[in-house]
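Figure 3 (text version): structure tokens given as input.
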């Protein structure tokens, strides 16, 4: 929702989703002393099967349903004599065909799993104390509402799976959106009443009249209803940016109406009757209040130049809200004052002689000393502010918006540490010629890029069809770790690809006659903000080092969008 419809980054992202289906994931982290114990694996299997049916689940992967490459021994004759057996070959089959029933079978599974580089730091922790269930979000579910619907269903699943010694944690970008929603709702539930109370309290402290306290609040209430109503009429959605509208309207609406109240009481203090005092108040304030409001609205409307849609919507709604507050202050407030009993004489005495009055007179007295003091303080604060501007950090890790003990933050840190991250930077890899991904020189350069991207801070691993090619080579060469290498000839690559075509969702790794591939760099959620800030430098490295001789890498995905948001926001400001 942050981008304009024709934004190049959004168009590229949607094209990527059409090709490969999904990039945002929800990760269920299952933590136990040993996830390979039969009872824990049975729990993992039940959750996996239930998660496959969750709303907007595009694909669900875990140890209990993942398919791997393995060497398949040739069949023997009926007498069991192996001498007549011929050949053997590579097969793609489930890692767990039957759930282990005893500790011996579990130990064998543990050994096979932790020796598989495709699984470790992906679906299982290297120490065997955590396993992941990765749920890819379908393109049609890649909306705020879709994410919340999926997470609600997942939480219901986990609530039914109580298991001693097993802890469940949720991570991934959908959980971040969900946490923002809940935090925003909690904030609005608290801050709106608290703001209203403070408006009443502080206005009462100044004027010592309940009617004077309620009038500004009425202006804020009406202006807020009109503004939010206009949002609904225009089809805008309430989001984390637009939630600031109410606070803004509270500040502007109170300021406008207090101007009117103060001038009205000044007119009464000068001996005018109520009706005449109201008339003179409007005549005196309509011009300065209009120019104050129109310049404020113009400043907010400048946000319409932003490339981020919610910023544009906020600018338009805030400008409209300011004008609504002005209109209400100059019409509704005088109308109410016509029916409110004027204050007694002691009110005016307090206005003339009270502490607040004396303080305001002191602050507004145009003497040389006051002018020097005000200018001096202003210059000092400006210089101090300018001095510390370079210390501002551009960009932010969204997890840091939450308290250190917040569940979203605790869970994300645990998943990042044990299972290699819960978000990603995606790359579309293209060759100019059909079948280019069979060329060893291109495979070698893609592998070089994979190693380079993995060296960056925050990137836990890269995943692409190259991992499968290496795994095929390893299995064909006796399962030795040292044999996990790329094919050295086009013919060998073509043969390996033929074997891979039996893998689940092969077309989600390679397309267009082996000329387009997907490369995913898994990123820890805790470092996503840092990496988003570094993407322009990564793009420059791609152009200078890797995009040449008929091979091209195009960046997209969740973190790429985060990076563009950051750039757009800074540029628009």
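Below: residues designed for each position.
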């Amino acid at each position: 929702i942050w981008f304009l419809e024709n934004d190049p980054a959004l168009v590229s992202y949607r094209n990527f989703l059409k090709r490969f289906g999904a990039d945002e994931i929800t990760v269920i982290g299952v933590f136990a002393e040993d996830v390979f114990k039969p009872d824990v694996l049975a729990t993992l299997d039940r959750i996996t099967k239930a998660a496959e049916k969750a709303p907007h689940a595009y694909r669900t992967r875990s140890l209990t349903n993942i398919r791997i490459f393995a060497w398949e021994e040739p069949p023997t004759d009926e007498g069991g004599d192996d001498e007549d057996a011929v050949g053997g070959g590579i097969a793609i089959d489930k890692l767990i065909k039957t759930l282990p029933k005893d500790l011996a079978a579990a130990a064998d599974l543990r050994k096979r799993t932790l020796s598989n580089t495709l699984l470790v730091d992906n679906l299982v922790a290297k120490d065997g104390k955590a396993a992941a269930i990765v749920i890819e979000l379908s393109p049609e579910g890649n909306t705020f509402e879709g994410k919340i619907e999926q997470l609600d269903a997942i939480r219901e699943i986990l609530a039914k799976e109580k298991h001693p010694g097993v802890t469940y944690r949720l991570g991934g970008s959908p959980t971040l959106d969900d946490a923002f929603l809940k935090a925003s709702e909690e904030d609005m539930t608290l801050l709106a009443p608290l703001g209203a109370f403070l408006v009443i309290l502080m206005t009462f402290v100044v004027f010592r009249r309940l009617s004077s306290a309620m009038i500004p609040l009425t202006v804020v209430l009406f202006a807020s209803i009109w503004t939010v109503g206009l949002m609904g009429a225009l089809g805008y959605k309430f989001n984390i940016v637009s939630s600031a509208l109410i606070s803004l309207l509270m500040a502007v609406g109170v300021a406008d109406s207090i101007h009117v109240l103060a001038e009205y009481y000044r007119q009464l203090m000068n001996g005018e009757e109520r009706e005449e005092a109201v008339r003179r108040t409007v005549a005196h304030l309509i011009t300065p209040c209009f120019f104050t409001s129109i310049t404020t609205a113009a400043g907010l409307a400048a946000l319409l130049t932003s490339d981020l849609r919610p910023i544009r919507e906020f600018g338009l709604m805030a400008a409209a809200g300011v004008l609504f507050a002005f209109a209400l202050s100059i019409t509704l407030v005088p109308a109410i004052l016509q029916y409110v009993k004027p204050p007694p004489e002691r009110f005016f005495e307090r206005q003339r002689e009270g502490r607040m009055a004396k303080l305001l007179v002191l602050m507004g007295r145009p003497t040389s000393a006051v002018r020097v003091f005000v200018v001096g303080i202003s210059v000092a604060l400006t210089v101090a502010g300018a001095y510390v501007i370079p210390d501002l950090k551009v960009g932010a890790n969204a997890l840091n918006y939450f308290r250190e003990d917040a569940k979203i933050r605790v869970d994300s840190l645990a998943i990042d540490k044990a299972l290699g991250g819960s978000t990603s930077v995606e790359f579309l890899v293209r060759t100019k010629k059909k079948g280019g991904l069979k060329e060893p020189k291109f495979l070698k350069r893609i592998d070089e890029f994979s190693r380079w991207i993995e060296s960056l801070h925050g990137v836990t691993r890269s995943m692409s069809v190259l991992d499968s090619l290496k795994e095929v080579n390893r299995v064909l060469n006796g399962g030795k770790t040292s044999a996990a290498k790329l094919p050295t000839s086009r013919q060998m690559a073509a043969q390996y690809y033929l074997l891979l075509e039996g893998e689940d969702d092969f077309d989600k790794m390679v397309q267009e006659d082996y000329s387009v591939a997907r490369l995913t760099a898994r990123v820890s959620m805790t470092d996503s903000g840092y990496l988003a800030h570094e993407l322009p430098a990564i793009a420059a490295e791609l152009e200078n080092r890797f995009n040449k001789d008929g091979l091209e890498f195009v960046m997209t995905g969740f973190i790429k969008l985060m990076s563009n948001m950051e750039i757009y926001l800074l540029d628009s400001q």
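The two ends are 19 Å apart (CA to CA).
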